[in-house]
Amino acid sequence: MKKRITFLHANDIHGQLHFKASKDFTIHGGISLLSGYVKKVRMEGPTFFGICGDMLQEDIWGSDYKGTNTVELINYISPDLISLGNHELDYGLAHLLVFKACIHTLILCANIEVTQFHEMLFLPSLVKDIGGVKVLFIGVIPLPFFKKVLSDEFFRHMLTYRETYDAIRTEIAVHQNEHIDLVVLMSHYGIEGDRVLAQEMPEDIHIDLILGGHSHIEMDEAEVVNGIPIAQSSYGTTHIGRFELEVDTEKGGLSDWSWRRVELTEAESDFDLGVDELADKIVFHTKPKRENAFICQFEKTFGNHSRLFETELGDLVSDCFAQIYGTELVILQSGSLRRNECGPKVLEKELRELYPFDDRFVTVMLTGREIKDGFDYLFSLKPDGSCMNGTFQYSKGFRLRADAEDYHHKGCRVLELTLNGKEFEDDRKYRVGLTLNCADNFPRYFGFVIAKERRRTVSLSTFGDLSGFLIRYPKVISPPEMGRFFLDNFEG
Questions:
Q1: Integer angstrom CA distances of residue 356 from 361, 461, 472
Q2: Which CATH number fits domain 2-284: 3.60.21.10, 3.90.180.10, 3.40.190.10, 3.40.50.10860?
Q3: Tell me, what DSSP letter sits at residue 102?
Q4: What's residue 17's pLDDT?
Q5: Residues in the chain, pLDDT under 50
Q6: Does pTM surpass 0.85?
Q7: What are the pLDDT digits (tens) for 62-83?
Q8: How far apart are CA 68 and CA 74, in angstroms?
Q9: CA 208/CA 187 separation, integer angstroms
Q10: Which one of 59, 72, 344, 388 is at 20 to 30 Å from 43 when CA atoms are compared?
Q11: What ranges do the domains of the chain cover?
């Protein structure tokens, strides 16, 4: 007999509570639309909704709430299962164990074992009946995430990592007499890790589906590796993954399936007014406190007194983004920085005034030839008589020198353009980071279009990432290394 059920899955919510509005005022995501969509689909038929790790994150919100805001909202939405992610360990395992008791939904992880007693620290697996289909869910994380636990000396001697294939094999054996129709992994391995898990799956283990997390990727379609469908929903609350499954309950396994990544807009879902009220209560009732929240300590006051030239704050923010997103070069619009000075003590209010334009962040692979041609265009004299239609700050290792002697008649001439002391190689591809606004305006600045299929969105909240990075910085921040942009013979 074949039965149809729906799987909804999210991952890497990271405490993203509120919607974002695009230029045409279309609303995208937010915890309210997410909740409204889940409610709608649950009313349509047998539905499972799971979250594959990283509900929490140590960001500007987390510094105030330590995750309590997210937990209250997750309890309201009431997912069927949650699997463990790496950011659930941001505040330490003791903190997580407290929230394990506060979160109403069961948390799965089959990898962490209490060594002496051979007991699992979290529920390793669970069988759920979904519309007459018996589904075995198993939660897994990779070894590097477990190692975060080992920083605590007490837990270091108490816990052991159970290898994932052994864990899966054990959990299937535990439930072998329950007539399981479907076996599903809730993974936080990332897409590359999920591919390896599927490709190297031992012949004696049968897995039907992998719901993943951690990579923050925008999948257009589910991947199939070694016969196993794999999918992630994205990042934050802008999208949700949706599987339509047809299950053979006589033979077991999938007889048919389809998947899509649903963009959460008002066209797809109504707002959930109950979650709206709860979110507003959690977020806005402590606003004055957050504005005075301490972010970080600079060694001295850092300046930002020019949009045309390199500044200390421009270098600092560019360097932060390069480290956060793992790029070789960040090109940051100077106009996105709006305070002339900041520090030595930096509060949230000051950081928001410095960087008020929260935006998506994208990465793109550009060839050395494209980069060189782009900067030639930036400094060229345009038909309308303009030159330098954009001004920018750059991350560490970049060096640009241009001559403005004949600025008004011929534009500027690029004299030096290097990265880490080497000229850009024409055929080599470089990973460059930009805000979405900068990528959209790239033709005006650098003379060519970065097609949308070349962009990879790696964040939906540059301010959240910047503040979270600075909050976690362990010591006083020294002035950044200057000397990235020189404009010779410029008279203004």
A1: 14, 11, 20
A2: 3.60.21.10
A3: H
A4: 62
A5: 21-23, 25, 58-64, 284-289
A6: no
A7: 444 566 667 778 888 899 999 9
A8: 10
A9: 13
A10: 72
A11: 2-284, 292-488
